[in-house]
Specification:
The complex is a heterotrimer of chains A (308), B (353) and C (503). By secondary structure, chain A is an all-alpha fold. Chain A is 72% helix and 3% strand. Chain A has one domain: ABC transporter involved in vitamin B12 uptake, BtuC (Orthogonal Bundle), CATH 1.10.3470. The longest helix of chain A is centred in the N-terminal third of the chain and has 29 residues. With 503 residues, chain C is of the alpha/beta class. Chain C has two domains: 234 residues, Rossmann fold (3-Layer(aba) Sandwich), CATH 3.40.50; 202 residues, Rossmann fold (3-Layer(aba) Sandwich), CATH 3.40.50. Chain C has a six-stranded mixed sheet, with helices on both faces. A six-stranded mixed sheet of chain C has the order 18-21-22-15-23-24, with helices on both faces. In chain C, helix 8 crosses helix 17. The chains are: A mainly alpha (308), B mainly alpha (353), C alpha/beta (503).
Chain lengths: 308, 353, 503
């Protein structure tokens, strides 16, 4: 029996899963603190642009290492953007949902504008890419399968996130303010700053997920295409379908990545492919509908908290 | 009275001004002349026939999708799904037209009714999930937007184009003449703008003067007192969502059934809806509603502003993307009236330190 | 008394329009259990909130171990060794017992919680207090009694030397309460001081060394527990002000309007909020349901109004069984309802007066036709209510939010009476109102009774209950533990409220 297609599915699926998995872990940390970051698309796209820009800017100086500067730039931009968002929503009491929508629309516009100005009309920068950890050739159809450090990070992250939330002081505070901010405040925890920290840390991971698409996986950033390739809302869906548990969220991220790979691997027509694209969202809506009583979202998710 | 209206418009005007300011800053950063760009934009949109028609063409979608967002909002439920409800409404109208031949007049009317029902049914899913399964519509409407967009594209390529009356290079589906909407005299756009204004007026009347509208507002502003006086907040939320979805579905029908201005084809809804998920009309509608502070009549005026921007950009040789960036900024400022106030007053300055 | 641990002197606190504390003195000795006894509104909680830094006092001094202290917030209070266990627990449900105890004062190294050290610290405390609890259970899975233990351990982990327990047994079963008493005794043996706030006479007799009795923001008396008995305490707790005079007609109860039999209901906190209670209300009488808050009043009213589903028993309006009817149907059976907490349940604060008076009545042909409202009729009706019930408002287009509490309540009562209901359920109808509004609302209830309506008055204001009720039912832990007739002695009411059933 020819297992080529299975290998292809696994390879493509895992590649697709990397940005989903990285971003989902970031969104998970943020949501655990009670902030629902609908602006997740902006949180990936703007840093992705920053990564490409840094990559290009440092290219002449650092050569191949410039891609890593891109990763750093993306994490910094993601953290910065999310910091502003969280500061506005916790200190200035801006509505989280509306601000999130605003950030997304802003991101769509501003990244497209910058790309068009910075690069060619097609907006295709040609920067360096992150060197793979190792590559395997010849498993299937002379396919060269590369394992990127970011893919390794995707597998490692859930453990780190689990330990961070479970074992550190900040992690404990994040879980407390996301569940019962009033109790946390009574215990002397500063709700606003813990939420800001959780959102900024989440932003770093969103940025990393975005950067994967510009300086690693597929170094293209085409304005019109950008929205389609950033699986931001699939990451949001993965957090929910994974029940806010780091390990499950990784599993769901991979599952969603594989779903996306079904279309090219099974070589279905592009029209039917659109149906595959809906699967992660359908799964999530069904999970919400059927298991909403058993799912344990952070109790204070999306609820603003004002000190009395 | 008039001063009251002006006063309540201040945060909106500040947000609009700040949006323009940020856009200007971006233009300046690229060494361009914002004054020249904006004057070309306004001149083009307002003084040419093409520009005016284009403004009206954007406007009806903006108005209807603003209503689709704000009406459920009055009941305290977030409908971020106007985009998806409109897309499916448009596709449903197209399916009816392509598969069922009806006499003129009845044909477009039937298509519109089908579009409204489809949008309403799609919205009802999220309404029911929030009311009875405790699944926030914030999340489910976003998810169903993507389902709708992909489902619609599938239907376009797999069902509609193979069945199209007139095959075309551009993956478009021309509508038969009897199934399109009337076109306005002088302008090259359909009567949808009139429909949209009427719906806005109707929504204002519905919310302020009918018992159902009253119940919707009561649920949004105080679900507990409403419940203690026998108004069921769950049912009311679902109903509000259904009405909102129906209005979005109507917008979708307009997008596919309007002749003129390059429309009258199913591909139109692609331009307006399926592509550009965030720059799409559904999200512009949210911006319009927010700037109108969720007032149905004010939405008409707020839609004028956004329509001029969108329709005028080509005249300034500017890409529509800068309008999206502006919309984003405006939305963020509208989300925090305190933010605008802070920028305006001294009191705010202290807060920053 | 031992060496003085805490002294509060001349404490005064006013809220807009109300003097909550008026020159209160309190002295607590080291290692003793000090009981603070009083009914709702006596000022017990306000006093403790001042001590814990949640309120600032207008005047007075606080000394700890002889030194004057300034307590500006709860962090200051914690720093001084004060710990408070509130009636509503402040646990984070998805954290373990240990995580809850250490939250905010975690032993840690480089940002990582030192779990070994934390466990050792907490286990030492557990042993010291003699509380038995599994540290790795999720807080949400704990029974109520255990949640309280966590709260106590939390306070001790922050180094509390003085522990304030606010109505600690309100949510406990008798066995759990017994366990609590044991721990309190162990704590004081270990040198801790406990302030025990309660309205329950038995408890205060059982656990305290000394008792301070408060009424209307003042200390009535402080005495050693060994010198106290139920009668002394009950009389001191429920002293009466000048009795208000209302124009009562002769007491002639008419037809049966409301009959409740063996009603049971579950609540969020306790499994059994209503424990098989039975009573009836007839036309032409005011039946007062007295009780300290949290004894099942809310659940009782919500069950009758269809806002909550009973788990057993029967509720009949006239002869019609209404257990399963939705609220809208119950309201159609000629029932008026003045809900507790007018701002939360009674009015839509962002609606105008005119919009509020038709809440729930828009479908009536008086106010709408074929789903379209008749603004003129609604406005006429609103003007009528405003005039008839002496609402002082700058017009009927003013938002309810901008009216005083008294005027808000007049609108609610007016709205409910306008429907000419046979039965009126009034839940805390005068709470927080000024004297004039209180008397006005109360006189409306008396007028309703004289006009032949049945009135079910649920109130924690015992003067109100004594002044207005033809019959008084005392609700205690979900049961009616006694029924009194008009003219009953205060002592007897005080005993019943404190959970001592009639002899």
């Amino acid at each position: 029996m020819d297992l080529t297609w299975l290998i292809l599915l696994a390879a493509f699926g895992l590649e697709n899963a990397v940005p989903i998995g990285l971003a989902a872990q970031g969104e998970l940390i943020t949501e655990k603190s009670g902030i629902l970051n609908i602006g997740i698309y902006g949180g990936m796209a703007i840093p992705a642009f920053a990564a490409a820009a840094a990559d290009l800017a440092f290219g002449p100086v650092l050569g191949g290492g410039s891609a890593y500067m891109g990763l750093l730039a993306a994490m910094a931009t993601g953290a910065g953007l999310n910091f502003v968002f969280a500061y506005l929503s916790t200190k200035i009491h801006i509505d989280q949902v509306i601000a999130g929508i605003g950030i997304n629309i802003f991101a769509v516009g501003i990244t497209a504008v910058f790309l068009q100005r910075y690069y060619t009309v097609d907006g295709t920068p040609n920067g360096n890419t992150v060197a793979p950890l190792f590559s395997i050739t010849g498993l299937a159809q002379n396919l060269r399968i590369s394992i990127s450090p970011l893919m390794a990070a995707m597998f490692l992250l859930p453990i780190l996130v689990y330990l961070f939330l479970g074992r550190t002081k900040l992690g404990l505070h994040i879980r407390a303010v996301g569940e019962n901010p009033k109790a946390a405040e009574a215990a002397g925890v500063d709700v606003a700053w813990v939420r800001i920290a959780a959102t900024a840390i989440g932003g770093m991971l969103l940025g990393l997920g975005g950067a994967y698409l510009t300086v690693d996986f597929n170094p293209n950033f085409v304005p019109d295409y950008a929205q389609a390739i950033f699986p931001a809302f699939i990451a949001l869906a993965a957090v929910i379908a994974g029940g806010w548990k780091p390990g499950y969220v990784l599993a769901v991220s991979i599952l969603f990545g594989v779903t996306e790979a079904l279309r090219p691997v099974l070589a279905v027509s592009s029209a039917q492919g659109y149906l595959f694209t809906t699967l992660p969202y359908i799964v999530t809506v069904i999970v919400l509908g059927i298991a909403s009583k058993r799912l344990r979202p952070p109790a204070a998710l999306a609820l603003p908290y004002k000190k009395e | 009275m008039l001063t009251g209206v002006l006063k309540s418009a201040v945060p909106s005007l500040v947000a609009l001004a700040l949006g323009l300011l940020v856009a200007s800053a971006v233009m300046l950063a690229f060494g361009e002349d914002p004054v020249g760009i904006f004057s070309a934009l306004f001149r083009g949109a307002l003084t040419t026939q093409f520009g005016q028609s284009s403004v009206l063409n954007y406007m009806y979608s903006y108005i209807l999708l603003a209503l689709a967002f704000l009406l459920p909002g009055k009941a305290g439920i977030w409908n971020i799904g106007g985009q998806g409800q409109a897309i499916l409404g448009g596709v449903a109208a197209a399916l009816l037209v392509e598969f069922v031949a009806l006499p003129p007049v009845v044909w477009p009317l039937a298509a519109i009714v089908v579009a409204i029902l489809t949008g309403a049914a799609w919205a009802a899913i999220c309404g029911l999930l929030e009311a009875y399964r405790n699944a926030s519509a914030i999340v489910t409407t976003i998810m169903t937007n993507f389902i709708a967009a992909n489902l619609a594209t599938f239907i376009l390529y797999y069902v509609l184009i193979p069945k199209a009356h007139v095959p075309s290079f551009y993956n478009e589906v021309d509508f038969p003449a009897g199934a399109t909407l009337l076109t306005l005299p002088y302008f090259t756009t359909s009567i949808m703008i009139i429909v949209a204004v009427l719906v806005a007026v109707g929504t204002a009347f519905f919310l302020s003067r009918t018992t159902l509208g009253y119940k919707i507002r009561a649920t949004g502003l105080g679900s507990r007192p409403a419940e203690s006086k026998g108004i069921n907040p769950r049912t009311t939320k679902v109903i509000a969502m259904i009405i909102g979805g129906g209005i979005a579905g109507l917008a979708g029908a307009g997008a596919v059934m309007s002749v003129g201005h390059g429309c009258g084809t199913v591909a139109c809804y692609q331009d307006g809806f399926a592509s550009g998920w965030f720059g799409g009309f559904g999200f512009a509608g949210i911006a319009v509603a927010l700037v109108a502070v969720n007032d149905p009549l004010a939405s008409i005026f707020s839609a004028v502003f956004f329509s001029i921007l969108a329709a005028g950009m080509p005249f300034a040789y500017q890409n529509i993307y800068i309008v999206w960036a502006m919309q984003g900024i405006i939305i963020i400022f509208m989300a925090a009236p305190e933010l605008s106030r802070m920028i305006l007053t001294q009191r705010g300055k202290r807060k920053w330190t | 008394m031992n060496e003085t641990m805490l002294r509060m002197a001349g404490i005064r606190k006013t809220f807009p329009g109300v003097v909550a504390l008026d020159g209160v003195d309190l002295t607590v000795g080291q290692g003793e259990v000090m009981g603070i006894l009083g009914e709702n509104g006596a000022g017990k909680s306000t006093l403790m909130n001042i001590l814990y830094g949640l309120y600032t006092m207008d005047a007075g001094t606080i000394e700890m171990q002889g030194k004057k202290v300034h307590i500006r917030n709860s962090a200051d209070a914690i720093g001084l060794g004060l710990g408070m266990v509130h009636q509503a627990f402040t646990l984070v449900p998805n954290l373990t017992v240990m995580e809850n105890i250490i939250l905010g004062s975690e032993p840690s190294r480089a940002g990582v919680v030192d779990r070994g050290r934390a466990r050792a610290q907490v286990l030492a405390l557990v042993k010291q207090v003699g509380l038995d609890i599994d540290l790795d259970t999720m807080a949400e899975d704990l029974p109520t009694g255990f949640k309280q233990r966590v709260e106590i351990l939390k306070a001790l982990h922050r180094g509390a030397k003085v522990l304030i327990l606010d109505e600690p047994t309100a949510v406990l079963t008798p066995i759990e309460a017994e366990e609590l008493f044991k721990s309190v005794r162990r704590l004081t043996q270990g040198g801790s001081t406990v302030i025990f706030i309660t309205h329950k006479l038995k408890e205060v007799m059982a656990i305290t060394n000394r008792i301070t009795i408060m009424r209307r923001g003042k200390v009535v008396t402080t005495l050693d527990t060994k010198d106290a008995n139920f009668d002394v305490l009950a009389n001191a707790m429920v002293g009466r002000q000048v009795q208000r005079k209302f124009n009562f007609g002769p007491y002639k109860p008419g037809e049966l309007l409301l009959q409740v039999e063996g009603l049971r209901a579950a609540s969020k906190h306790k499994t059994e909020a209503l424990d098989g209670l039975s009573f009836s209300v007839n036309a032409g009488e005011i039946v007062g349901v007295a009780g300290v808050e949290g004894n099942g009043q809310t659940e009782l009213v919500e069950c009758i109004m269809g806002l909550m589903k009973p788990t057993g028993g029967a509720i009949r309006l006239g002869t019609k069984l209404i257990n399963k009817l939705p609220t809208s149907e119950v309201l159609k059976l000629s029932v008026g309802h003045v809900p507790e907490d007018r701002a939360l349940n009674g009015l839509i604060l962002d609606f105008s007066v005119a919009e509020n008076v038709v809440l729930g009545a828009t479908e009536s042909t008086d106010f709408s036709r074929r789903g379209v409202m008749a603004p003129r009729k609604i406005r006429d009706f609103a003007r009528k209510i405003v005039k008839l019930f002496n609402v002082s408002a700058a017009g009927i287009d003013v938002k309810a939010r901008n009216l005083s509490g008294g005027n808000q309540q007049k609108i609610i009562v007016g709205r409910e009476l306008a429907g000419q209901p046979h039965l009126l359920i009034a839940h805390q109808p005068t709470r927080g109102l000024d004297v004039a509004s209180t008397e006005y609302i109360q006189s409306l209830l008396v007028d309703s009774r004289n006009a032949g309506r049945g009135v079910l008055l649920v109130s924690a204001d015992f003067d109100e209950i004594l002044d207005l009720s033809d019959r008084i039912l005392v609700l205690y832990e979900g049961k009616i533990i006694g029924e009194l007739n008009r003219g009953a002695g205060i002592g007897e009411l005080g005993r019943l409220l404190g959970g001592i059933a009639a002899k």
